[in-house]
Design a protein that fits this description.
heterotrimer; A alpha/beta (768); B mainly alpha (295); C alpha+beta (361); A: 768 residues; alpha/beta; D-Maltodextrin-Binding Protein, domain 2; 4 domains; six-stranded mixed beta sheet; 16 strands; C: 361 residues; alpha+beta; Rossmann fold; OB fold (Dihydrolipoamide Acetyltransferase, E2P); 2 domains; 9 helices; 35% strand
Chain lengths: 768, 295, 361
């Protein structure tokens, strides 16, 4: 399953959202829990159906799997149907299908998800698919063993090691500090070491050297105290010396190493695959020791890929036989030969003289298997944020890690105690009673009958829409809103009354304007909505005004070109903008460099997502781009309703062009534009895609708006659907009351004007 | 302002400074609008994959490889080879067109009733419909999923169409109601005097007269379905059932983004919508304001 | 070709009663005009005839058929709308053929009839065009054609000329009347324009406030208006009304009217049951004021403004505190200027009860 499998934890990190995959995976995973809630008995499987095997392999690994399965079928095994799925959607699809008795009989996944899968009952012990301990590496077996039982048959192991560019470095210093010390001797623009310094996954190897781990005993947050502080200080010193790039992501590490701009790189086997046929002469060695940690070696996290059985698959002998075969020595040899992966078996010898596999094998020996506790997933977001905040210089190491622990505890806090449902039942009962009473009263007043009879023809036209909207929109919405009264993980949730709302509205007991509190996010959301609407209007209306001028040449062509942003799928454009703001290779950086070259300036490329102001600006630019064509088109339409003679009358009356615009044109188009502006404001208020895909809330969640905050609670923070639903209900209540208030004010104003007119008429009538 | 335009303004000389300034502003806006698109196009045709900052979106070492790689995916089914991309394109089109048809089909009669009849519950119904637009969609996703499961529609195009219809129908109702309201009642009455039933007047006169608004509404419904991939990625479990956005998703993992392939795919995915936009762009202005988003 | 009978028709919209018991008879083949100010209920009545509104009570009969609760399509009527209501997506030919197609007429008949009507109205060259490519007058003709082609028993016109300019309006008015004479079908025509009403109608119904104030032949109604409202509504310039009190002729049998501020009195022709001391309105049409020799006039008018219309002049002045207009032939009135005091003879006057507005005969 390639490199992504090994770093599953990343799926839960504070999403840097380079790509949409995880975002959607999270959304999908929302569905998972739901499915579990209602899952009834698994449907009976068709006896003759082929075995369903799901995986996320690509390239050589997929070829190896196909070869193994082909051999299985050729030797009389049951037929197998393979399905390759995007890794990002893998877990959520399993969760969505298996509890309903559908989905795969067996699947290949990373071991650290086992804890989560076990809670959700989408994995079963492997039973006789496991042939015995002797053939497997201890580390691999430990990884798939939970409470003394084997929950997956290990296939391969993956962890990071040190890639060395031999063209730049003949001898590899034994210590990290030694590598950094090479920096002064390296050519201009070459880093001594490239790795994802801001990521908690890569940092975990360093933390390991100091004896720490991301997840502490009894599922407590581990990235605190002495090891955390010292490891962070060490990273800072490496960056300060210019030995390590401070904002590299995975793709950049690959690019730097491929381009010969990194003497060494910390990465997994996937880097080799990405390098492919390359000119770089490299080899792989074990990660260095760390002097600051008393010469202890760096200890990366180990991921074990294993065959897992779904509960319905585990009951079938032929499925267990297939699982056994996939993990067999013969299969391991095929995998090793075809895909060049490190197998989880101890009885498959490494190919003679294969330094690459040897290095990873040695590294795996000292690696720490990633904990499979569900709590592990909750460590990534706070840890990533802590590292970033520290490296940006906002917080010292102790404060950053302590803050991260608070966040972790916040997410892992026990759900509120169950509440008595009696108040809810009473309230709902009273509402139903009130409605029934209202209906009876209406019926008795005698107006209803004839009114209903008159309405009959209309009902024939709306009936099917009422049914469709009721079933497809209203019922799900009401159930969804009701979820806000529940708390806890989907499997173990219970009714808590309004506790979620109380939690949110009291900022979970913290300061009201602390990062991530409801009120701060609300302020950001309001700022976001306001600035977008203002810019959409300013741009859309001005362009509309210009394009509507009959003297404007080429206006047809301009109009076509200007509505293009509307036509492009918005996730595509969001990602394109994200790329354009990339610090290293983004077009905006290119623009700055171009200006520097042209005018001899020395502007620094901006790290757009490290400051609130610039990150917010990047989001804003993207959303303005997406939204202005709509306003432009609305303006063009509204302008057709402005009669020419009114403007001419104003001109004859002596109004300047500016006055004509402000006093005649704009007031006339205002009523037509208003509904569109309101709708645009509602859309912007809930514009998840742009915020999530472009800034991803960076830095430190400050650019998150209410919707994306709600999504985080549902998808990256222990699947607290009830909590997320409470956010959704609050969003709804705010929008609803604001629009009602607007309607009410408009009505009051209209009434007042009507009254004034009546008064004037009466007065003039009296004068006659 | 076309209002300006009808008048004697047209005959008046516009100073070249003013005209140049207008063009300058619009050209800037066009550059702003096109730049990201060109960036994606350049990426799709770029042969080299080493990213570097550059201002002009011009492909390096131009190549059609990425496009070809995206379009030419196949898979073996038994003895024969299936053109996978073709099937997925067909899936996307079938689902999106069905969504547009279902959405419009449900919305048209309802919107007509809302525009022309007075009935008990009309105001309340409209209010509820507007309120559904304010609820973040995610809150409804779970229950909807469970309902589709109960209907056995999880891994099917039908299920997907039903999901998409939930967002398409309310919007279409608002849109079309305003469009019908802008059509003079006289037309239907003339038809009825001419011998049409109410239904015939609706079908033969009102619907054709509302064609621009209906086309625009259908376009929006089509787009919402065509561009969606959260639900599609979750509901569909077979490669030959995938819609194009799900296919695109596979090109970009967090750690091995095939940006060029993604760009190529994005280009192919965007093309049909852009063509539709181009064809319907005149209706867009009329359809949106006559139709108006007047709530 | 039917006679139309409307009896005791009322129509309410919610609490508002728009028609308050209307009785109308239109003999077969007649051209009836419903005329009245806006809001008098004339259009509502027409829509009730068409079947576009249901009557609240009362009945409608076309010939022998009770059509009160029939759908529009079953009433065999055709209607020309004020907005013309041409189907914007259909060509002129298709617009004309629409009703026939709905009635499943065969294609050859449709073509023949459409061509015949196009010929009649001069629409031939326009048949392929869409409505938006037509001028206002052309649209109006298409709307007429669409009604004619159906050969209905009853034509309904809802202010069909109000969107045309004055010259065209006069011409089309003539055309409509000619067409009616040619086709011979019963027609009901709604207008607020008294000229149209006067020129077109065989029989005229003046509506006011949801009731028929008066009906009859146009000239009868003009000559003998039944109320102050009808008198004021018909005729241009409008009838002069002067508030007055009746006084006994000093030393005589007859009555006189003391006008306005009391500075002028005029002799009144005898009226049944009219005694002295009644509050009345004296109505005189401007054309019934005739310039006469000094000293022979019933009244003298001090002119404060003069309009020259060519064949006649309109002399405006104040009589007993009330504004009054007199229409005088140009040849007779040449030389009348502002400030002139002209003697006028009242050829004919109308008397109305102040309270009820009814004509005193």
């Amino acid at each position: 399953m390639g490199k992504r499998g090994i770093i599953d934890g990343r799926e839960n990190e504070e999403p840097t959202a380079r790509v949409p995959g995880p975002a959607y995976a999270r959304i999908a995973s929302l569905l998972v829990g739901a499915a579990t809630l209602l899952s009834a008995a698994p449907a009976s499987a068709d006896e003759d159906a082929p075995i369903q095997l799901w995986h996320a392999y690509r390239g050589a690994e997929e070829d190896a799997l196909a070869a193994i399965v082909a051999r299985h079928e050729a030797t009389g095994g049951a037929p197998v149907e393979l399905l390759a799925l995007p890794y990002d959607a893998f877990g959520s699809k399993l969760g969505a299908s298996i509890p309903l008795g559908e989905g795969p009989d067996l699947y290949i996944d990373s071991h650290e998800r086992l804890g989560d899968y076990r809670v959700r009952e989408i994995v079963a012990p492997v039973g006789d698919a496991f042939e015995g301990e002797e053939g497997f590496r201890d580390n691999a077996l430990a990884a798939v063993t939970l409470d003394g039982e084997i929950w997956g048959v290990p296939l391969s192991q993956k962890c990071v090691a040190l890639y060395v560019n031999q063209g730049l470095l003949r001898e590899v210093p034994a210590t990290l500090e030694g590598i950094a010390a090479l920096q002064p001797g390296l050519p201009e623009g070459v880093f001594a070491l490239a790795y994802e310094a801001q990521g908690a996954y890569a940092h975990a190897a360093l933390l390991g050297a100091f004896g720490g781990s991301m997840l502490g005993p009894e599922d407590s947050f581990g990235f605190v105290g002495e090891p955390a502080i010292r490891s962070l200080d060490l990273v800072q010193s490496l960056i300060d010396r210019g030995a390590v790039p401070n904002d590299a992501d995975g793709a950049l590490v690959t690019d730097l190493f491929r381009a010969g701009k990194a003497a060494t790189a910390i990465s997994g086997p996937w880097l080799a695959a990405d390098l492919g046929e390359t000119d770089v002469d490299y080899r792989v060695v074990q990660l260095p020791k760390v002097e600051a940690a008393g010469g202890e070696p760096m200890r990366p996290m180990l991921t074990v890929e294993a065959v897992m059985l779904s509960p319905h698959g585990a009951q079938k002998p032929e499925v267990r036989a297939l699982a056994k075969l996939l993990a067999s020595r013969e299969a391991a040899e095929i995998r090793q030969a075809t895909a060049h992966t490190l197998t989880a078996r101890s009885d498959v010898p490494l190919p003679e003289g294969d330094a690459f596999l040897r290095a990873f094998a040695d590294q795996a020996e000292v690696a720490i298997p990633m904990p499979s506790s569900p709590a592990m997933r909750a460590t990534w977001e706070p840890a990533n944020r802590a590292i970033k905040a520290f490296l940006r210089g906002e917080l010292d190491a102790a404060a950053a890690t302590e803050g991260a622990r608070k966040r972790f505890d916040d997410v892992r806090r026990p759900p509120p105690p169950p509440a008595s449902p009696t108040p809810l039942i009473i309230v709902v009962g009273l509402m139903l009673l009130y409605m029934a009473f209202g209906m009876v009263r209406a019926a008795r007043s005698g107006d209803l009958g004839p009114a209903l009879r008159r309405s009959l023809p209309a009902y024939r036209y709306v009936a099917h829409a009422v049914i469709a909207i009721g079933l497809l929109v209203l019922v799900p919405l009401i159930i969804g809103a009701a979820t806000s009264l529940w708390a806890g993980r989907p499997e173990t949730g219970h009714y808590v009354g309004l506790a979620n709302f109380v939690d949110i509205l009291t900022a979970r007991g913290g300061p009201l304007l602390a990062t991530g509190s409801f009120y701060l996010v609300l302020l950001v959301t309001l700022l976001w909505t306001l600035s977008n609407v203002v810019l959409h209007l300013a741009l859309g209306v001005s362009l509309g005004l210009i394009l509507a001028r009959p003297t404007m040449k080429l206006r047809g062509i301009y109009r076509v070109l200007l509505i293009i942003p509307w036509a492009v799928p918005n996730y595509v454009t969001a990602l394109a903008w994200k790329g354009m703001f990339h610090r290293q290779f983004g077009a905006v950086t290119g623009l700055i460099e171009g200006l520097n070259r042209a005018f001899g300036l020395s502007m620094e490329p901006i790290a757009w997502f490290s400051k609130f102001s610039t990150a917010f600006t990047a989001n804003l630019a993207t959303n303005v781009w997406l939204g202005f064509p709509f306003m432009m088109v609305i303006t063009l339409g509204a302008l057709t309703a402005v009669p020419g003679d009114v403007l001419e009358a104003a001109e004859v009356d002596g109004a300047t062009r500016w006055q004509r615009l402000w006093k005649v044109t704009l007031p006339i188009i205002r009523p037509t534009m208003l509904p569109a502006v309101v709708l645009g404001a509602i859309w912007t208020f809930n514009m998840f895609n742009v915020v999530f895909l472009v800034s991803g809330g960076e830095p430190d969640g400050t650019t998150d708006i209410l919707v994306s905050e709600a999504y985080r609670w549902a998808f990256t923070r222990e699947a607290q659907y009830g909590y997320a639903a409470a956010y959704a209900v609050l969003i709804f209540l705010m929008l609803f009351s604001v629009t009602r208030l607007g309607e009410w004010r408009a009505k009051v104003k209209a009434d007042r004007e009507a009254a004034a007119v009546a008064e004037a008429v009466a007065a003039s009538g009296g004068a006659h | 302002m076309s209002g300006h335009g009808d008048g004697k303004d047209a005959g008046r000389q516009v100073s070249w400074i003013e005209s140049a300034a207008s063009h300058f502003v619009v050209v800037l806006a066009v550059a702003f609008a096109l730049y990201p698109v060109l960036w994606v196009i350049a990426l799709a045709f770029s042969g080299t994959s080493t990213p570097e900052a550059r201002v002009l979106p011009i492909p390096r070492e131009p190549t059609f490889d990425h496009l070809w790689a995206v379009v030419s995916t196949t898979r073996e089914v038994g003895e024969s080879t299936q053109w996978l991309f073709g099937r997925q394109l067909a899936n996307s089109l079938i689902v999106s067109i069905s969504t547009a048809l279902v959405g419009i089909g449900i919305a048209i009669p309802a919107a007509y009733a809302l525009a022309r009849f007075d009935f008990v519950g009309k105001e309340r119904g409209l209010r509820v419909l507007l309120a559904t637009q304010m609820f973040p969609a995610v809150a409804a996703a779970i229950p909807l999923y469970l309902m589709l499961d109960a209907l056995g529609l999880l891994n099917s195009r039908t299920g997907l169409v039903l999901c998409y219809a939930t967002t398409a129908v309310p919007f279409a109702i608002f849109q079309l109601r305003a469009a019908f309201e802008s059509i003079p009642v006289d037309l239907e009455e003339a038809a009825m005097v001419d011998g049409a039933t109410r239904l015939q007047a609706f079908v033969k006169v009102v619907l054709p007269a509302a064609r621009p608004a209906i086309a625009v509404t259908a376009l929006f419904a089509f787009m919402s379905a065509y561009n969606e991939f959260i639900l599609a990625a979750t509901l569909l479990g077979k490669e030959d059932m995938f819609t194009l956005p799900v296919v695109l998703q596979r090109f970009i993992g967090e750690y091995d983004a095939q940006w060029e392939a993604f760009a190529a795919g994005a280009l192919i995915v965007s093309l049909p919508v852009m063509v539709l936009f181009y064809v319907l762009q005149r209706n867009l202005v009329a359809g949106l304001t006559a139709g108006g988003v007047k709530g | 070709m039917v006679a139309v009978t409307v009896s005791q028709v009322t129509k309410r919209f919610g609490a508002t009663e728009v028609l308050k018991g209307i009785d109308i008879q239109v003999p077969d083949g007649h051209f009836a005009v419903l005329v009245g100010p806006s809001g008098c209920g004339k259009s509502t009545l027409l829509r009730c005839l068409a079947g576009l509104e249901e009557v609240t009570s009362g009945s409608l009969t076309f010939g022998e058929r009770d059509v009160t609760s029939l759908q529009p399509r079953d009433r065999d009527v055709a209607m020309v709308f004020q907005s013309y209501a041409l189907y914007p997506h259909l060509s002129v030919r298709e617009n004309l053929a629409f009703g026939l197609k709905l009635r499943k007429t065969d294609a050859a008949t449709i073509k023949a009839r459409v061509d015949e009507v196009a010929e009649m109205l001069g629409l031939g060259p326009l048949l392929g065009r869409l409505p938006k490519a037509l001028s206002g007058g052309q649209r109006q003709r298409v709307a007429m054609g669409r009604a004619i082609v159906r050969r209905p028993a009853l034509f309904l016109f809802d202010e069909p000329l109000s969107n045309l300019d004055a010259a065209l309006r006069a011409q089309v008015r003539v055309d409509i009347r000619k067409l009616h004479d040619q086709l011979g079908a019963t027609s009901v025509y709604v207008t607020h324009d008294q000229v149209e009403a006067m020129t077109l109608a065989d029989v005229m119904f003046v509506l006011n406030g949801g009731v028929v104030e008066q009906s009859g032949r146009p000239l009868e109604v003009y000559e003998a208006p039944a109320s102050r409202f009808v008198a004021g509504f018909l005729g241009s310039p409008a009838m002069n009304f002067i508030a007055a009190t009746t006084v006994a002729e000093p030393g005589g049998e007859g009555l006189r009217a003391r006008l306005g501020d009391g500075s002028v009195t005029i002799a009144l022709p005898p009226r049944d049951g009219l005694g002295a001391g009644r509050s009345v309105d004296v109505g005189v049409r401007p054309h019934d004021l005739e310039l006469c020799a000094q000293g022979e006039g019933d009244i003298e008018l001090t002119v404060d403004f003069v309009e020259l219309l060519g064949p006649e002049i309109h002399a405006h002045g104040v009589l007993a505190g009330t504004k009054v207009v007199a229409c005088i032939e140009t040849s007779a009135g040449a030389g009348i200027g502002i400030g002139a005091v002209i003697p006028l003879k009242i050829r004919r006057l109308h008397l109305f009860d102040r309270e009820s507005g009814r004509t005193l005969r």
